[in-house]
């Protein structure tokens, strides 16, 4: 029993440390020694438990992606909020993800292109969930009432993703163009956050 508890605890410590390091520095920027130091374990235990840095990264990415989808699902299927409130909540959700895990959007795209089955399946589930969501029905009702131009939930999400995720994907270029340090760029992202929902909603009118 003690051996199992120790094994589980060590594995969880490594995963939590890897989550912190990977989501801040990405796969290429992370070193297994740094992960071991954060976890407080011997470096040799990482390949023992997870075989390789790549396999550990894949696990962390899938878990982070799943946690993010759960947050999105709660927002879009919340019957107590109207459509516009949901847009604001989604902007907050995506913006927080970009600030907390700046490498997640880029690496999610990378593994989807490589055909990572788990991430691809999560993406498909998200598409089905969004189209059948409370938010999608609310949008349809608003369009039928003449409040918004004819559109659908996919168009709304494309605009929202473009305004929240693109700054993270293009961060190296934009930081260089603006001669900004990473912390200053994070402040810029935060200052944009309160405007993005309004921009998205304006395109619908």
Going by helix content, strand content and strand pairing, the class is: mainly alpha
Strand content: under 5%
Which descriptor suits the 3D outline? globular
Biggest sheet descriptor: none
Mean pLDDT: 82
Q: List the secondary-structure elements in sequence, H or E.
A: HHHHHHHHHHHH
**End-to-end distance:** 62 Å
Note the total helix count: 12
Q: From the coordinates shown, what is the CATH architecture of the largest domain?
A: Orthogonal Bundle
Count of extended strands = 0
Which CATH C-level class of the largest domain is it?
Mainly Alpha
Supply Rg: 20 Å
Provide an overview of this structure:
This protein has 205 residues and is an all-alpha fold. The chain folds into 2 domains: 51 residues, Orthogonal Bundle (Arc Repressor Mutant, subunit A), CATH 1.10.10.60; 142 residues, Orthogonal Bundle (Tetracycline Repressor, domain 2). It is built from 12 helices and no strands. Helix 4 packs antiparallel against helix 5, helix 4 runs parallel beside helix 7 and helix 9 runs antiparallel to helix 12. The radius of gyration is 20 Å and the shape is globular. The N and C termini lie far apart (62 Å). 26% of the residues are buried. The N terminus is likely disordered.
Question: How are the SSEs ordered, and which strands pair?
Answer:
Elements: H1 2-29, H2 32-39, H3 45-50, H4 53-76, H5 83-100, H6 104-113, H7 117-131, H8 134-144, H9 153-164, H10 166-169, H11 171-178, H12 182-202
Short description:
With 205 residues, the chain is mainly α. It has helices spanning 2-29, 32-39, 45-50, 53-76, 83-100, 104-113, 117-131, 134-144, 153-164, 166-169, 171-178, 182-202.
């Amino acid at each position: 029993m003690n051996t199992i508890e120790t094994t589980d605890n060590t594995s969880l410590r490594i995963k939590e440390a890897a989550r912190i390091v990977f989501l801040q520095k990405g796969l290429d920027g992370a070193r297994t020694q740094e992960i071991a130091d954060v976890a407080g374990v011997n470096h040799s235990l990482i390949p023992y438990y997870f075989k390789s840095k790549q396999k550990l990264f894949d696990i962390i990415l899938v878990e982070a992606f799943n946690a993010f989808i759960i947050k999105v699902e709660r927002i879009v299927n919340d019957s107590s909020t109207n459509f516009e409130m949901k847009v604001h909540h989604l902007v907050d959700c995506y913006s927080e993800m970009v600030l907390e895990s700046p490498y997640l959007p880029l690496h999610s795209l990378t593994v989807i292109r490589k055909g990572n089955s788990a991430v691809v399946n999560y993406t498909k589930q998200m598409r089905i969930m969004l189209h059948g969501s409370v938010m999608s029905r609310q949008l349809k009702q608003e369009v039928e009432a003449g409040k918004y131009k004819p559109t659908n939930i996919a168009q709304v999400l494309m605009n929202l993703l473009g305004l929240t995720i693109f700054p993270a994907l293009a961060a190296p270029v934009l930081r260089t163009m603006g001669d900004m340090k990473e912390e200053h760029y994070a402040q810029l992202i935060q200052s944009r956050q309160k405007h993005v929902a309004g921009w998205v909603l304006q395109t619908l009118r």
